[in-house]
Amino acid sequence: MKPLPREFYQGDTVSVAQNLLGKTLVHLTPAGTVSGIIVETEAYLQGDPACHAARGLTQRNQVMFGPPGHAYIYFIYGMYYCFNVVTRPVGVGEAILIRALQPYTGIALMQSWRGKENLQDLCSGPAKLVIAMGIKKEDNGADLTADPLFITDDQNCTGEIVTTTRIGVGQGAELPLRFYPAGNKYISKR
DNA sequence: GTCCTGATCCTCT
DNA sequence: GAGGATCAGGACG
């Protein structure tokens, strides 16, 4: 179970978003190891009005402009956090929002952290998976190519990938930048 | 099943 | 001072 190399994250953001489907997000926590298979992603590109980096570098989005393969975690709606993967070289503000996971290992731990039993409710949304994986705001900027939070290619996505529009965005809502495996039951929404 | 609302607060203008 | 890459629970059909 080796982390993906940094080169994986350097390339075209849309391609990386598609390639992330089927990969496994792993978190080694003091309470135990939890992991889930990535089944839903959204790309946020430079020049895209929905992207946090669209208006240039700020204190909040500075991680997006940093080196690829790091975690960008931001606070939203007063109570939730979302988890993103930074792509492209230093100076380019692009990232991929991880919207849903299929629970893989440490499921009992996820259930206790989420207070839910149903597997389809554990990680079927960006804020849900952050809670289920035990990810905290302090993990913002964490290097995803090393312990304790990383992504491996232990699993591979088989079958067709569906491309649709993104969820919950205002401007840029028409752009086809959301990806998930056809027929997957663990995504946040059809 | 679908629709509507409240919770709750950080960030940028 | 406004608004946001959300979720859970309730009303209703």
Describe this structure as you would to a colleague.
Strands 1, 2, 3, 4, 5, 6, 7, 8 and 9 form a 9-stranded antiparallel sheet that branches. The protein contains 5 helices and 9 strands. With 190 residues, it is an alpha+beta fold. The radius of gyration is 15 Å and the shape is globular. The model has no long low-confidence stretch (mean pLDDT 95). It binds a DNA duplex (13 and 13 nucleotides) through residues 42, 44, 50-52, 55, 58-60, 74-80, 82, 84, 97, 99, 125-128, 166-170.
Question: What are the salient characteristics of this protein?
Answer:
single chain; alpha+beta; 9-stranded antiparallel β-sheet; DNA-binding
Q: What's the Cα radius of gyration? A: 15 Å
Mean pLDDT equals: 95
SSE-based structural type? alpha+beta
Q: Fraction of residues in helices? A: 10-25%
Strand content: 25-35%
Main sheet?
9 strands, antiparallel
Distance between the termini: 31 Å
Unreliable stretches covering 5 or more consecutive residues: none
Overall morphology: globular
SSE string, helices as H and strands as E = HHEEEEEHHHEEEE
What does the secondary structure layout of this molecule look like, with pairings?
Blueprint: H1 7-10, H2 13-20, E1 24-29, E2 32-44, E3 71-76, E4 80-86, E5 95-105, H3 107-114, H4 119-122, H5 126-132, E6 145-146, E7 149-152, E8 161-164, E9 178-181
Antiparallel strand pairs: 1-2, 1-7, 2-5, 2-9, 3-4, 4-5, 6-7, 8-9
The structure holds a DNA duplex (13 and 13 nucleotides).
